[in-house]
Amino acid sequence: VLLKYKMILFDCDGVIWIEYKILDTIFPLLRFLNENSINYRFLTNNNSMSRETIVEKFYEDVNIKSNPYLVDRKLIYNSGYITALNIKSKNVKKIYVIGSDEFAKE
User: Which residues of 54-85 are buried (b: 16+ CB within 10 A; e: fewer)?
Assistant: First the structure.
């Protein structure tokens, strides 16, 4: 079924991880997608973790050092990053962030 798609979007919370524990089935699926040239992205509306922290979480929970290309911050879109992209597109140069340090990193 997946072979007919060019892009798969994963919601992180409850799909990739439950209570920040990454599900065991995720990496075999990512390897399958990668081997079949199917693009994928990770989406989350949770801004309590920056994209870099999310990548670290993948490495922490499951040993992917042999396949580090499976998860990269360029594949992750959290609410903080989307907000930053939107603000940047409007040429806003200076903002004041009221939120977590992770949110401010984006």
Answer: bbebbeebbebeeeeebbebebbbbbbbebbe
Mapped onto helix, strand or coil, the DSSP state of residue 81 is: helix
The C-alpha angle with vertex 18 and arms to 36 and 78, in degrees rounded to 5, equals: 70
Beta strands 21-22 and 17-18, pairing class: antiparallel
pLDDT in tens, 69-82: 788 899 999 999 99
Q: What tokens were used for 70?
A: 């499976």
More confident residue, 19 or 9: 9
Distance CA 10, CA 55 (A): 14
pTM above 0.70, yes or no: yes
Q: Which residues pair with 1 in a beta bridge?
A: none
- Token pair 């065991």 is found at 24
